[in-house]
Amino acid sequence: MKILNKYIYKELIAPFFFGVAAFTGIFIGTDLIFELTEYYTRWGVEVFTLIRLFFLSLPEIIVLTFPMASLLGTIMAYNRLSGDSEITAMRAGGVSIISIVLPALIMGLVTSGVTIGITEFLVPRANYRAEQIMYQARHGEQRPETQYDLFLTPMDSSTRRPDYMLYAHSFNGDSGVMKDVVVQSFENGSPDSVLEAKRAEWLSDGWHFYNGTIYFLDAEGRRPALEFDSYRSREEIHSPGRAGQLGKNIDEMNIRELSEQIALMEEQGRTAYEERVELHHRFSIPLASFIFALLAAPLGIKPQRSAGSATGFGISIIIIFIYYVLMTVGDALGSQGTIQPWLGAWLQNIVIFIVGVGMLIKTARQ
Questions:
Q1: What superkingdom heads the lineage (predicted)?
Q2: What are the chain's domains?
Q3: pTM score
Q4: pLDDT tens-digit profile of 154-165?
């Protein structure tokens, strides 16, 4: 690695961690502290539990603060180099703007990769654990695994008609047990029969139903066909793990689980626009570290009359505000299907990327 690159990396690291501390402190002071205070005053949550909730909330906050810190750190570092005429000296020595900016882009890309890892492996588990703790604090018992009023209606991809319709009053994904179950079967897209059972259990060869009746559906209406103590379904009904995805919160899912959730929803004829936007956010928000570095480097290189932390912080706040306004608009449009979900999730990154490339080209030509 060139000595110059090492020097620029050294300049970038300190303001980056300053940005992480500053923006994390803002999130904690304006949001998290008030939530924890409410938990203490409203539900009497113990101090030790509040400390656990505090640390469980940090991964989700860090995912947001890393891109902001990348923006602030890059602006501050290049502002300092520009203010001390070091950028001018580098360019006089034959160093190109691309070479000067490259360390910031690499650091932004590495930060994006780390953020994706945090989003995938830490945030879902931390959110799931925090939700369990808060449920126990509010209700005095552990969060139940049982779902109520489960509906499954997978669609045939070729005919776009239901394969079957299933309703269960209660469903426990861990034990693989459903209670008060109704399954309507279809033949060539038309209702064929209805199965009603008091209970269903997932075994090695599929779902088994107990204490129920099967009815045939014809022009004369519904008529009993078979009463049974035990019956194995002829329908290929989803396994407990797959069906249980419907009851899990999006912010408790990793990328694989969220992708499976989208596939399951689409099998049931649902659009899953909001879930698709969220899936793309798992990459677009972390990648903002690289996008911000691309924009911040030419901004920092541009000579400032009063370069410093206050100037860099002020510029960062303005850019972050614009970024999140664009993200909010894109999220709303993508979640409603007005625009493609991927475009809704990436809109802010596309705009900032185009502006950053334009500024970088303009700076290189000066």
A1: Bacteria
A2: 3-137+272-365 (no CATH), 155-237 (2.60.450.10)
A3: 0.84
A4: 877 667 678 888
